[in-house]
User: Fold these one by one.
Assistant:
Number 1:
Amino acid sequence: MDQAVFFFEILLPALMQGLVVTLQLIACSAPFGLALGVAVAVGRQYGNPVVSWLCKTYVFLIKGTPLLLLLFILYFGLPSIGITFTAFVASVVGFILCNGAYNAEYIRGALISIKEGQMVAAQALGMTRWQAIRNVILPQALRRAIPGLSNEFIYLIKYSSLAYMITVIELSGAGKLVATKYFTYTESFAAVGIVYLVLVSITTIAVTILEKRVAVPGTVRATPSAQL
Amino acid sequence: MNNNDIVLRVEDIHKSFGDNEVLRGVSFDVRRGETKVFIGPSGTGKSTLLRCINQLTPPDRGRVWLDGEEVTNSGARINYFRQKIGMVFQNFFLFDHLTAVKNVELALLKVRGMGKAEAREKALTELRQVGMEDWADHYPAELSGGQAQRVSIARALAMDPDVILFDEPTSALDPELTREVLEVMKKLARNGMTMLVVTHEMGFACSVANEVLFMENGVVAEQGSPDLLLHDPRFTRMKDFIGRIDSRMDD
């Protein structure tokens, strides 16, 4: 078969279909993963002992087990107790739980780095703890967490391929199907790899732009020569 | 003295951190429009005392009253009292991610529930009071220490407090910047703001304070007008302390 015909009429359309699913997985997971991360980080850092313990345990469980295991439980295991997800929904739930746990750690680190005085000043003005967290602490902490969060987002792009293991035909899965059918492993997977590279590159550029836009004027970015 | 004039009453405040008893029973009354200056060696609980007044540090014992209402043991109502008791910190503690004007208007919006336009107008008015109106759109990191401290004073003023607590407001500043902050504070005092000021600035104390409280080892050791404490032979401890500071500075 002609290489060009294979590439443009078989491989590319298949990968584009898979890419759409991958993008859907990411779009459905990332916002909730971020929200969960914020909630868990705040809960662990500022919640009462019970909430804090729950958040800590959740992060511990997710960090300590493979994501693939979580997906298997969600998709193959839960029906036995009467909860049935479609493969897509099971993937999204798994990704949110995983993404949220790691995001929480990045955000928690950023929360800890905000100086105590910010909270003290906010409370001295009559803000409740929650108002201070919402209006003073989080806006600063989230800026500091951007590098870590973007890293985690890039992981999400890549581990979304695990959805294939519970039958979701996303980008990697689409590549795998073409590869086995036409016996074109190298070409197919190389093409899949390039698509991921493009996604990650776009993310990296977008994060750079975002960081510049939300940077607080006058704050010195960590450069070796400028220490404040 | 007319009792109604008393805006803030502090009764027998005790506070320990572990085995270290920082405050051992401090009491005083503050009349409306009065400026009280707290002076004394480091570690004698001056800053802790201020924080006990607005309950940022809850005292172990003792009570605080604002306008006849108890501030201590006030539960969630403490957030009401904290609006009425402004505070200015040694290290400014401006909100780093907000411009000067937004620093001032944040609590107006979120705590007082003011509308955006009204809050902005009030914030700009307060910035004008401290001579920082032209810097409204600058971020804390773009301001000098003196400018930042003036913004933080504006932030405290915006809540229309009954009294403002100044916790070593110029200790982080070099002399020139110190002067611009003290000028603002003098103006406030002249305009009738009630102020409690922890400071080492004797010049400020002498020119502005109605009363100086010299604190040592967690208690008020000497108390009186600046003139009295500096010149009356019955009072020696503050003079000794100031002498020690001065001789250190001469070195």
Number 2:
Amino acid sequence: MNRLITPRMLRSALPALSFTFLLAAIFYIQPRAMSYFGLNLMLNLGVPIALATLAQMMVITVNDLDLGIGAFVGVVACIGVTWLKETPLLGVAALLGCIAIYAALGALIHLRNLPSIVVTLGMSFVWLGFAVLILPTPGGSVPDWLRAFMTLKTPYLPFAVILSILIALLVHWGLMRTAYGTIARGAGGNPRSMEQAGWSGLRIKMTMYAMAGFFGVLAGLALIGLTTSADANIALRYTLLSIAGVILGGGEFVGGRISPIGAVIGALTLTLAGSFLTFLRISPDWQIGAQGAILILVLALRALINQAERKK
Amino acid sequence: MVHSEIVNLNGVEKSFGAVQALGGVDLRILAGECVGLVGHNGAGKSTLMNILAGTLVHDTGSISIAGNLLPGRYSVPLAHQNGIRCVFQELSLCPNLSVAENARVLHASLRGFGWRKRAGALLTGMLEDIFPANGIVASDIVGDLDIGRRQMVEIARAFTVTDVPLHLVILDEPTSSLDNVAAQQLMSFVRRFTAKGGSCILISHLLNEILETSDRIVVMRDGRIVDTRDAGSFDHQSLVGSMGSVAVEADNDGAKFVSRRADGDKTISMGVEGADAIPFAAHRGEIVGLAGLAGHGQTDMLVSIFAARGISVEAAHVPQRVAFVAGDRQTDGVFPLWSIALNTTISSITSMVHRLLIDPQREKQLAETWREKIAVRTPDVDNSILSLSGGNQQKVLFARALGSNADAILMDDPMRGVDVGTKQDVYRMIRQEADAGRTFVWYTTEMDELRNCDHVYVFRDQEIVAELARADLTEERILQSSFDQKAQS
Amino acid sequence: MSTFLVKLREQPWLWAFVGTIAMWLATSLVTGAQGSGQVLSAAFSFATFFVIVAIGQMFVITLGPGNVDLSIPACMTLAGTVAMKLMAGSDGMILVGLLAAIGCGFAVGIFNFALIRLLSIPPIIATLSASFLIQSSAIAYNRGLRVKPPAALAEFTTTRIGGIPVLAIAVMLLAIVMHIVLTRTVYGRSVLAIGQNSKAAFLAGIRVERIRFATYVLSAVFAATCGYFLAGFSGGAALNMGEEYLLASIAVVVIGGSSVAGGYSNVPGLWGAALFLFLMVTMLNTFGASAGLRLIMTGLIIIVVITLAGGRKR
């Protein structure tokens, strides 16, 4: 009857523990990484991934999966380095339009009871097509304010770290603490009874998809703020990374069981895994393999702790 | 004001395709009364309640609330606005949310600063009122609670009030997952609630609950109301009679019984850890009952027997061929995309293989045979399983197990929501099958059903605490063993 | 006749074939009668490979929510690479190469399932992580060198009888067999049951974990076989040869009328959907659409098709 240490709490602490462990391992191998500059270098590319992961999480909250988020981040990046720089008004309108399309997708999926995997899969082609049309060859340039924002020099902690913490807390508050966030998660847990309690499933789904679009836009902008240029394929791998990030962070595919803070940590863990390999000087042939291995290792750890918990 | 009208249904009809579920129902509910609603499965009780709660739209007829005829479409939000709530047979909580958050789901007005605290206080206060000392905390995640406690939360939530006054609560089989103590607590709360001017509609298959709690009893049959009278003018016998099924006196003559334990042919045995623990055994041709309060390890025992099929070691001996009849048909039993036929035959397909393929002829034959034998109400076994009412779906699950070649059949409180007539048929069928040599292990929460068993094990706190042969079986002994705090050894 | 039409309308795979015919007719408007025959022949050649992997993917998806095999592209690459290097262009080694490829499939399937089971992680994540390792193994095994397939294998994969590739005929037979496996065998019935409700399936006496194991192995073996023939068809194994098969295999399964929620699948639709996807791109090509426009149209048509066919029972 110990209410202080529940399996649920340990599970939610796990993402943070594995992140810390990976960070410690990196510091052990390369002590020079333990600096303002080192942390910034390792984690700043984690910010767009974290944002994309949160976008994915919004969709997973309502029991759907977004296979188009990577391509979507790519479109945003392409808009960001072209229209947003040259004709800001058009750029902003286009980005708002993208969010509106996401909301419309939510409506379509809800009204026709469509499998989200297929609709977003189709959308991934559409987004990619738009990206190719907007920016046929890699290049473009990023608005100065965006570049300035993403490379902000903050005291004590690198901006990437501060930004990640802020984003995680904000989304945690919005989804886990507010009254409407509860409704959104409830719609993942028991959609039928939510409708019976008088909540509009359509509105919930549109809201969550619009939120996914919003965070996708932020991810794309954050990405080009760091890379300063873009191409259509720039973020395709974000689709799988964002799914992995949500799961690594302790979220589940169905039932509205999600953790925003965990998702951000999960995304950063995946980012760190890349740096870890570079520090270990692993041959490029094995880089993605080792990335997979780290993913498996972290999940194995979770399984072990789960098992120990069950035995107790 | 005391006897003002809450709701009045007039000539309400509802059909699902060709099947008429309700054929012209008139029902008037007054303030401060508890109306018991009884009838067979498929009599239309659930359909009627769904219409009253706004989850189903009726075809013809009218609904007026507090004397005002409703214009246009009736809906769930409209029902809530008028103070009508429903506790459905299938739980409607969100398992991923906490107890407090589930209160928020029902009450749109619980928002703004401090909503979480207010929601928690509202719901736990009501829980304490209905089910004292329940051990539920506002921050508990509902999915982590056992099914009995989930049901308590569900019921308590339906009685919570924020900005809209509450007039009528529909309780559709509210005690199905509650143990006796909690069920009693609920019934006395319902009486307190109606004494203060609220109204309840109570649906239960436990006729004693209906007889003791309601002021008025409405009997339904084949989509119509066939009788409505003061509860005092009914007794158990006459109530069953007016439902249209033949009352069968439970055979209480335990003395006639001859134990099958003498011949020593054990079909199932399960060793149990612990020095003074009682081991479990079931013999050939025996009906073994698992008793005790709901959720005290009976289902776990059945599942572990099932998982151990084909194992024969010192600690456990279970035959190869075992079938399971699920009680919670939504989550454990039914394959929703399949027809009645496919749902019936799934446990038998291995024995119907002819040249590597399942023989469709034999499959069809099996489904047809059992449709007739167990009287599944359907024109065609190729119809979807979901076209059946809950009780008929349960019959299909029985047919699945009985139609298989299993030597032992495990039953996980399978009579939930099954009407009296069907129950008697199934009891008879089980007895026949047992006489033919099959072994039954039967977890049940109803005393009447234990009287069909040859041997009963009583569970408490995940352990077997007593073992009773049929001749020694009395309700008192079972209750005593179920509630004792410590074994008297 | 009318009952036949009613039955036909109920078939979940109908839309895929209707779409296929529409695409083909639209293409024929531009290419003319002779061209349209060639288009169809090419469609069969390419659709064949999609169908092989999609059969495996379909069985996996049928297992229910969360079951998707993301390791298909990596498995194809590994099997193709290993087989090509082993055969080293020698005709005598063709069977050995095939066995090696199938062996790779078994290994990948067992590894996938071991991850799912031992770590109790969602299959999407298990197969995703596994695919990283498998892809790496393929790279490390051959350092990206392209070995030419044996001449006889290359010839077999491109042989046609009456305009229809021999391989396509073989895969049609395979599809018939797998259709029967799905609908008439204990294994297929079990897969469908697990996909609807795995707990109920367990309590109905189905050996759930055995079936799941067999299904993941089946998917990997089919992917490996596809990798082997694709390498033969396209003149050797390339490291990115499986790339487009990941999303395509899912798209083919779902456009074919199977439910991504599991428990409801059909094999004929796979052929319909694979032909449809190929003919759609061909049609856009013949109408002179740019790369970006082609992608947008591809995506939109996938969405339109699922919207028209969708809203099915769940």
